[in-house]
Design a protein that fits this description.
Length: about 90
């Protein structure tokens, strides 16, 4: 019984320690387009592989959900960066 309990604990801990996989920009662009984003609006940083960054001004709730679901399925944490671009001066 103790051996079974110890084996279960080891399996549970090893499942949590899976290393994050880097996705190339082509893959991220495919996901971005599928979620209604522009090319380059999804990035994954080499130093923080578990984070999937969505950089967009005013993303829709559907876009956020799409990115979050894909990130979760791939063992990543979705981070949403809302960019506020300055408005053009009226001429």
């Amino acid at each position: 019984m103790r051996v079974l309990l110890a084996a279960s604990a080891i399996l549970a801990l090893s499942a949590c320690a899976t290393p994050a996989r880097m996705h190339d920009q082509v893959q991220l662009n495919q996901i971005a387009l599928g979620c209604g984003l522009a090319l380059g609006e999804l990035i994954q940083d080499e130093s923080e592989k578990k984070l999937l960054l969505m950089i967009r001004q005013d993303p829709s709730p559907q876009q956020r959900v799409c990115v979050a679901k894909w990130a979760r399925r791939n063992g990543l944490k979705a981070v949403f960066v809302n960019m506020s671009f300055p408005e053009e001066p009226a001429t």
